[in-house]
Amino acid sequence: MSASTATLHDYNIAEPIRAASDDELQASIHATEHDGGAGVILVPDHGDRRLR
Fold first, then answer.
1. Which of 2, 43, 47, 49 holds its CA 20 to 30 A away from the CA of 14?
2. Burial of 39 (0-12, 13-18, 19+ CB in 10 A)
3. Where are the alpha helices (DSSP H) in the chain?
4. Which residues pair with 18 in a beta bridge?
């Protein structure tokens, strides 16, 4: 499997946080079955990780 190009976003501030890990990408794909297709997942907040 190739590296993910998916990006995690903070929807509270409408900004990208960081690249998603393969596990996060798979969790998001799984979440689409339960949230109407948005694929929203929660990730731990470790301070300011937004892309610059």
1. 2
2. middle
3. 22-31
4. 8
Distance CA 10, CA 47 (A): 12
Dig out the tokens for 51 from the structure. Answer: 């892309």
Kindly list the domain boundaries of the chain, sorted by start residue. 1-43
* pLDDT band at 29; cut points 50, 70, 90: very high
Collapsed DSSP state (helix, strand, coil) of residue 45: coil
Contacts of 27 (CB under 8 A, 6+ apart): 41
At residue 8, what are phi and psi to the nearest 5 degrees? -80, 140
